[in-house]
Amino acid sequence: MPVRVVTFDADDTLWDFSSVVPGANTAVVDHLRRLDPDFGGTVEDLVETRRLVGEESPHGTPFPLIRHRTIERFVAGWAEPDPGLVTELTAVFFDHRDRHVQLFDDVEPMLDDLENDVVVGVITNGAMVWKSTTIADRITFWLAADQIGVRKPDPRIFSMAAVAADCRPRELVHVGDEIARDVVGAQAAGARGVWLNRGRTARRGPKPDAEIATLGELAPLLAAWSTVAEVGVGPHPLPWPEDHRLDPTLLAEGDRRNVVDRYRYWTRRAIVDDLDGRRHPFHVAIENWHHDLNIGTVVRTANAFGAAAVHIVGNRRWNRRGAMVTDRYQHVRHHDTIEALLGWAEDERLAVVGIDNVAGAKQLENAGLPERTMFVFGQESGGLSESAKARVADVYSIAQFGSTRSINAGVAAGIAMHAWVRQHARPPGSV
Asked: Can you spell out the DSSP letters for 327-378?
């Protein structure tokens, strides 16, 4: 089964949480001693208090609350109770942790090695402020137990991750350093659990689907798991054709890419050049303010219908899973704002129309679409942004006959593109 999504535990999987905690505890004790030089508590006392509070706390107690109660008991053992001081010291602990925690050295190279179409998420019981990390823009979704009310190893949190990534649980792989929380929970949800055993310790507990010592071993593992029945063609028999468009490596090893048969063995550049001579003059733009999972589908469909280009508005990084690698052959442009997009479209003399089911929209089924058209689509669920609706020339709606308020943005894009094709393009092979 192909791997569509990989999720990670955070603490001691992506960043070295354990090494920063002693420093955070020391910062708390040092802060207390600056306020009261006679304070007698030690770091060892604070660590032991944390162990006791953790054992006494009911299952599911948020970690920040456990830390707050730890410091509250620690202070009470040596001084008069002071709620304000406890809050202050708790902030000292988390501030030190967030400022000093470091990614493991193998994290960013691993993310670089993952296939572009693999969705990356995090499932954590911790309370790290993840948006301040250097990999925040590479993470599509983040499920924190304290925010959603479900903690690992509860399989529901892994099921939520599958929903967030729009995949089936068996297409999801979770990686973590704890078998009891990470592996057991993932497997109970129908996903695969990979144990990251950095210390190469002896396994205790259920068997993971795989065990790795570094994250550098992950990409080859996922590639092996994603291997499916071969498609395409094998090595070309000798003698090879003399054609500058052909790739010698593909001729020798075979061509298993997602391309039509006429492009078998062609180089990527040759395919793009050939498509450039036949692309239609319509463009497709989609707003990307929250890493919309539909963008990959839009890119793949635009490639199928021969769109001149796809335009991403907003966040530069987009989810490539649904593109099925077609983005390698499709021109994809980025614009920071809707205003920048419309300025570009004006320079190219494109008629810009929005697609959304809103009051006052015209019917796409009855529309006469200009040959040089740019379709603009909004985010899934939210539709076109107010800025886009105010600036496009027209907004068209797609007729619906059921109970749902709207259809999927990727589906809507396909319908709109096909409406253009029916008016302006001749099907391949037709006379």
From this structure: GGTS-EEEESSHHHHHHHHHHTTPEEEEE---TTPEEGGG----SSEEEEE-
